Amino acid sequence: MKPGSLVQNAVLPRYRAEVAYLRGLAAWRPAEYVFWIAPVLLYFLLPKQLVLFSQVAIMGLFAISLDLILGYAGVISLGHAAFFGLGGYAAGILAQQGWGEPLSGLAFGGLAAGVLGFATSFLVLRGSDLTRLMVTLGISLMLFELANKMRWLTGGADGLQGVEIWPLFGVWRFDLYGRTAYCYSIVVLFLSFLIIRRIVHSPFGLALRGIRENGRRMPALGTPVARRLVAVYTIGAIFAGVAGALLTETTQFVSLDVLSFDKSAEALLVVVLGGAGTLYGGVVGALALIVAQYLLSGLTPEYWQFWTGIAFIALVFFARGGILGLASRMVAVLRRISGVA
Fold first, then answer.
1. How far is CA 200 from the centre of its chain?
2. pLDDT tens across 293-304, in order?
């Protein structure tokens, strides 16, 4: 037997097993179809809350972009709002200067954030988790102060005025009822989710999981750890920029809040709340947080943050893995009970 055939016989079974494993991960499950049908039903069932659910979709996309680098690559960040805010300002300034086409604004916002993500990745990814926390926070604070000082460009504390977004495809205007904004946000979220889902269920995504679990051993398997981290950090920045541009286009306004530390902390909270390393956790966490804030602020306007804090503490103690982790354990328990019965 030829040496080449020996190598082929040894490698092919392993390769086929890996391909089958990736196909199993990428296969859509019935619950996922139900998940994405729900936004269509919400459009007809809750037409007066479309503005609220548009914010859920935007925050969900922002949280997914953070989950990509945190939940899959293990890169923790307290400055992800730098990319979100830069994308928002890029789309807003472009529209203010006379080009309000929505899709090109999204692309421009994502590109601007991606350039910043790539440029800062070499600095962010050098140290340990504590170093990354401090560096990402520092970059975000510097960008916030820069936007505050450049009033001639960003509007400073007053926000960017004169942002006019053209009708989507020249037909659908962004109305006060939020119908166009809702449909636009959901479609952008879904398409972005498809891309990110494909990324995490690819060999690249498996490499990211390996780096998260044990980054020191991955080079022994031939994985270029530094390049993989730079790539995923840049990709996460791009989608965060798209989310920021989406917020600017649907509200036709952008202010310093999009660059604040609170926005970064909120995204991190949403990821932990929904379940890190799941992708769907970003959307579920955004839905839970924004709807809870909306309902509690209506019931107890003075103390809604207190009750929200209590709920978060309870989730930390009793729902490891976030809402999706709790749901998966409950399903497992129900299956065992039904099996015994």
1. 13
2. 888 877 777 777
